[in-house]
Amino acid sequence: MTERLYWLDPYLQQFTATVVSLTEHNSQPAVILDRTAFYPTGGGQPHDRGTLNGIPVVEVIERESDGAILHVLARPLEAREVEGRIDWERRFDHMQQHTGQHILSQAFLRITGAQTVSFHLGEEVVTIDLDQVGFPPTAVEAVEELANRVVLENREVWARFVEAEEAEGLSLRRPPKVEGRIRIVEVADFDRSACGGTHVRRTGEVGPIKIVKLERRGNETRVSFLCGWRALRDYGRKHRLLLESAGSLSVGEAMLPEAIRALQADLKEARKALMALQELYLDLVLPYLEQRVQPASFGEVLTYVWPQLPSGLLPRLARRLSEGRPRLVLLAAGGADGLLIVACGPGVPVDAREVLRRILGRLGLEGGGGRPDYAQAPVPRVDLQALQRALSEAIG
Ligand SMILES: [Zn+2]
Questions:
Q1: CA-to-CA distance for 25 and 309, rounded, in angstroms?
Q2: C or N terminus of the chain, fewer CB within 10 Å?
Q3: What separation in Å is there between the alpha carbon of 184 and the centre of ligand 1?
Q4: Could you tell me the distance, in angstroms and rounded to a whole number, from the CA of residue 31 to the centre of ligand 1?
């Protein structure tokens, strides 16, 4: 079993060790040392990164059979003595998150009675799963406040080993998952639990603890939170977002929700007014278009091209004009959101999709689609005269 230097001193960033064996893990070179400061993945905490004699350590695994710690390397190592260096930024982040988790779990237990059933420290988010659901926001605020008070009180955090019998009398927050000697991590006068991870010396080093999300998952609640630098970076990001949003609406931060509500109300009004105007336009333009209807062998035909028309109007016009009549209706509008529509009333002996395809072909375009009685295609920035010509040829 490898001697675990990270248990003796979690602040150890450099160490020397002797190679015990060279092996492989998933066809990558791996090395076992007599002692190591590299933390292997376990207990919800990810492994450390760093180097052994300058070679990157990409993964650290505890071998279940004998407790040996495997350092998976980017390339083979050829030495008996090694100097190890821990990626301290990554490790210290893990120590902040992990110690913060102990504090937060105890705060949830004290205020809501909820037990933490699992812990996950991810690259972005840290989560705990609680064995209860339906936490009122006031309870969550109280939990966060208690956790941060414990941080600011800068309490001592320490770890020690005890025998299993002694552990039973220690009223641990979480019963140990291992047998024999048990490692206890204690936050002075606040939390005591069995844990093999790495933690900071004093709660002040955890930095701010911020709960960012609660999600119900069956009979459990997943709490996402951030500690230390992660919380500060998140605060920075959110602050910039808020400033940018408030700036773009020319209001103070505190007025932002109200400004958004006002914008939404304005938009709703504007949409209503637009709909009313469009109805008015339809009523005015339909009689005018009716006058342009021409006779055809099967009934009637109508073509018309607008230089520009708000999108949404053209389909409504096409439907109104072709409804219940043996009439072929070809409508188009130019501009950036130009549109071409072919609509066939009852008894028109052509397929709208076929007519559409022919017109597009004359314009050197393709695309669009629809049904036998209605087809449309976007024709952005199409030449209006060419469009007019193509429509006339289609019915000619
Ligand atoms: Zn821990």
A1: 66
A2: C
A3: 9
A4: 26
Q: Measure 53 CA to ligand 1 centroid, in angstroms.
A: 29
Assess whether 234 and 104 both reside in one domain.
Answer: yes
The Cα angle at residue 62 between residues 60 and 67, in degrees rounded to 5: 145
Question: Sign (positive/negative) of CA torsion 302, 305, 309, 315?
Answer: positive
**CA–CA distances in Å: residue 195 to residues 5, 90, 175, 177, 184:** 15, 19, 10, 9, 6
Residue recorded with tokens 């639990």 = 193
Q: Is the same domain home to 228 and 216?
A: yes
Is the same domain home to 139 and 104?
yes
Same-domain status, 100 and 210:
yes
Boundary-marking domain end, from 86, 117, 137: 86
Angle at 122 between CA 103 and CA 42, to 5 degrees: 75
The residue type of 150 is V
Domain range for residue 286? 250-291
Q: How far is the CA of 138 from the centre of ligand 1 (A)?
A: 27
Residue 129, token pair as written in the block: 């799963």
Do 140 and 233 have their domain in common?
A: yes
C-alpha 298/C-alpha 322 separation (Å) is: 13
Task: Please tell me the distance between residue 137's alpha carbon and the centre of ligand 1 in angstroms.
Answer: 27
Does the pTM surpass 0.85? The reply is: no
Domain count for the chain, please give it: 4
Domain boundary among 30, 57, 86: 86
The rounded distance, in Å, linking the Cα atoms of 20 and 2 is: 9
pLDDT tens digits, 180-238: 889 999 999 999 999 999 999 999 999 999 999 999 999 999 999 999 999 999 999 99
Evaluate whether 77 touches 22 at the Cβ level (below 8 Å).
yes
In a shared domain, residues 102 and 230: yes
Co-location of 57 and 17 in the same domain: yes
pLDDT tens sequence across 33-53: 999 999 999 988 999 999 999
